[in-house]
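Task: sequence in, structure out. Protein: Disease resistance RPP13-like protein 1.
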Amino acid sequence: MDSVISATIEVTLEKLLAIATEEFNLVRGFKQDLENLTDSLLSIKEVLEDADKRQVNDGAVKRWFKKLQGVAYDADDVLDEIKYENLSRTVQIRNQMKPKVCLYFSFYTPLAFRWNMAHKIKNINIKLKSINDEAGHHGFLRRVAESAPSRPQVKETDAITADPVFVGRQNDESKFVEQITGEINDVFSVLPIVGMGGIGKTTLARRIFNHPRTKTHFNERIWVCVSENFDVPTILKSILVSLKETSHGDSRQAVMDTLREKLKYKRCLLVLDDLWNEKPEDWDDLKNALMGVNPNKGNVIIVTTRNENVASIVNPHNCNSKLEKLSEDDCWSIIKAKAFEGGDVPEHFQTIGKAIAQQCRGSPLASNMMGAVLRGKKIEEWISIQEIGPSNIEGDQNSIIQVLKISFDRLPSSSLKECFAYCSIFPKDEVIRREWLIQLWMAQGFLTNNQGSDMETEGNKFFSILLQSSFLQEPEEDEYGNIECCKMHDLVHDLSCSVSKSKDHTRDDIPQVRHLTILEESVPEITKEKASYARTLVSKSSVPCKNLPDFKHLRTLVLCKARIKDLPTSIAKLIHLRCLDVSYNYEIKTLPGSICKLYNLQTFNIIQCNLIQLPEKIQDLTSLRHLYFCPKVDFPMPPHIRRLSSLQTLQFFNVGDKEGCRIEELGHLKNLRGQIEIRNLELVNNEEEAKKANLDGNTNIIELKFCWRRCWRRNTNEGNTSNIHDESVLEGLQPHPNLRSIVIEGFRGKNFPLWTMEMLKLDKLIKIELRKCYNCEKIPMLGHLPLLKHLKLKGLTNVRSIELSFYGAIDCSSTSRNDGQETRVSFPSLKSLIIEEMQNLTEWAEAQGVQVFPCLENLKIRNCCKLTTVPNHFPCLKELEIDTMDSDLPLSNIISSSNLTSLVKLSIWRISELTCLVDDLFYKNQNLAYLELWTCKKLAYIPQLRGCGASLKKLLIYGSDELRELPDDLGSLESLESLTIFGCENLQLIPYPSGQKGLSSLQSLQICDCKRLSNLPSEMLESCTSLQSLSVFKNENLTSFPELSGMVWFNSLRYLEIGGFLNSNILEVIGLLKSVQTLSLYGRADLVSLPYQLQNLTSLKELWIKDFGIEELPNWLGNLSSLERVYLWNCEKLRHLPSKEAMQRLTKLTYLDILKCPLLEEQCRPDNSEWPKISHILKVSINNRRIWSS
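Result:
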């Protein structure tokens, strides 16, 4: 039976019972009708619960269920109207306003409202009676009762069936075989293999089971297909059958005795295939029984399951058991093997076959099925099948959708099934944000407040189940370990569409579309009747104002990036609306006041709208739980936001100085959670006022940002008043110990308050940032915080020393034991440390008697010009960046440390006194992949690079004026992909001795603006067999240039930037570079023509012409038929473009950029001589000012 219908009935019943419980005054006059409705729905619910357990295939019964669902929706809408009216009256009473009789609300006087609701409920009861009569007349309920119990069709597996095509899992097979045949100290070691249906779990388990090493290692191998029936006695008997034994009796004891006799002194492998049971006690019972049967060490149980929770139950410590998707190449290999049975694949099948493999999205099941379907088919049939897609290929119970539906049928509740079905509204491959998905479920009424937990809690529970069941995949975590977003596999998305009956949301032949997603640029014509059925509308374009009220039953309206300028006042008629998203509509500046009549609204997203202010009565949205907006610092908050008592998400709060806008408003929002940025704290008067925000009483806020405006000027003559004032305010803002992240910006005090300086209670902090606290004289002690991972100190310009106290309180720091000795550890979890814009910092003290930074991977020190002393103990450092510093001592102290061997990236910027790098830097750090040296003008020596020859991928040297030659082992950098030497004025030599491995991985080579360089070694260029981009320009004395036409890479080069040196012969060979797509030519003032060979580059897409002395561009430029973009820079004598006819032959040209060509610039303006030649070009830019063509 369709579980979505059952869920609709359940939601409606819950609302009915809530109305009956709350005794709304509004229900007087039709209470008996409500009771009748409740009785009818309860009776029907019992039938649905039974039907949900059975396989109902009768077409007439299914149509009856569909009618029932329609009436349930109607009932839900009526009950929602009652709830809305009650909320409306509650707001009016709270605002001490008498109900106004206006045009919009005139219909809803109490008497008229009761009469209208009574009439609607009676009609629903009549419909329900008719549906019940129809069921009795046709015997529907009897047919349901007689239907066979619904069980997922599960194919029993075995250990013998051959798997002729085994692709893409060889590494997994080897890893698992190695694991189970190695030394095992447990009696039974459990290895779970988890993944979505059809991903290849059983196939892999069978390969492991039948592997020669497995057969040799284990005395007994046993295979049991468990599926839905996890019954310990039954499993034990199945094991006995697999061993070809029988017990003396059917009792569990008899079976156990026989098993113990058979398995004692033996090492066993047991495969439990397709396990679903999520009860730990059942698993413990089975495992204990097996340990009683065979107490020997070295036994292994392999469990295959679709559910990650099952995997964590059978082995809580195994986190690497999930099978990943196959690659597209692997899927194509399976399809080829099945479709052509090992024979040759005709070339014209290759392209379409690979496209079909891509559709399989890494599923071996889909690949096998598609290969079987394609076997013997003609190319036209392949194309047709590719257009249909794997999910729509008709098949038996082994088809993809049916295999995946087994998991769907096992979801524990009809509400969860409806939540899964609702995911079909997302496009394929969409990144789905967890919080947003839960809010969408809330809006549809799929989630309820149960047993003291709120809707969000239930939503998170549902999300976790879908993730554990592989319905949601590829989860991404935030820095606190919480899952932020995920994706849905394409085949699972097809299942979602299948169960929701929403594969095509916009088809005209679907009479009652409930959830509508419109991806077109404009909203198609939708009749008023069809619009009234919709409960979700997601559109990328605006809905005409006149049509919006037609969608009168909407729960969710998403107009994100719909290019709308305003919302109509008629939006207030969408009284059922619970989720409204108009984010990223940059032209919206105001919201209609009528929006404050949406009393059911729970989620409101107006991020990236240029709002001037929010409606004053937004506090009337008493159901609002999540408000997303990002105001400017001077944005006025609406007054009395405290009345939004259900609010959980409020990411920004701008403190005001008017009544109802002060910081105390936050103290009344008891349910706030997540993150909040509190701005304009200069408007808070003292500690007592700050305490009214009640931040220390809110356990659910995990991210806090405090901001003072720097430009604020207080009306006082005392210079230190603002300092003391800020210190007092920050003292009152002490947060709850659950805080994970804190940012303090613009604080003007000299001293942080005690809770900040010591942070003894904030031991859950993961991230700390102190920014632009210009008067601060001392950094807080932070080293004792056990979980701190990210620390940023920026703009603390008054701090002169990072003192020993920085490393934390002695009695609070983490400790570790080594050889019986207790060692104090400071910053035990820190991974990233950034210190920048601290211009007066001179000293960073070395810690004494303590282990520091054992996990630090990323260190950046920027714009600390006076710093001379730093610690040198960074044992795990991977990335080091030092930027803008006078002394080279800090850098030398860090990189000369003997314990620094882990560097992966080293960036050095503008160190005035740096003359050389330490000799053993590259020998010690043999994993170094990125080395950047920027504007170190005195740098004269770079040591041998050979130590990181196998790892270095990028080498950049810019503006090192004293550098005269590069290391002579440059050719040993076999992994180097990018080499840039730029602006090294005195560089004379690039040594390249013979016998080196060569730059075989180099893809990009830039040697530019090196005025004294006279030649490039041809051996170096010859070794660059992978080169795709070459830039050699403005090397004024370069007279010797290798012969390019003989290079291996000559016919594969894609980007060439060349010229600006004495030897101009090189320009003559560029016409042979047929593969170049981007060409940048540098000339000289004495070069008055372009090389004519240029006209042969018919694949050229982008052309730059710079610094030439030419007066007119040749007409043969019109032969460059692929040209899309042209740049003409710094050609001072250039007056004319090619002829109009030549320019118009450049049919693909869409962009022309003219810069510093004064004679041409004037002629190219509208109404001048050259304008007709370029008026057809889409975009023309002259001196960085865009001129649009006519």
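The chain has 32 helices and 41 strands.
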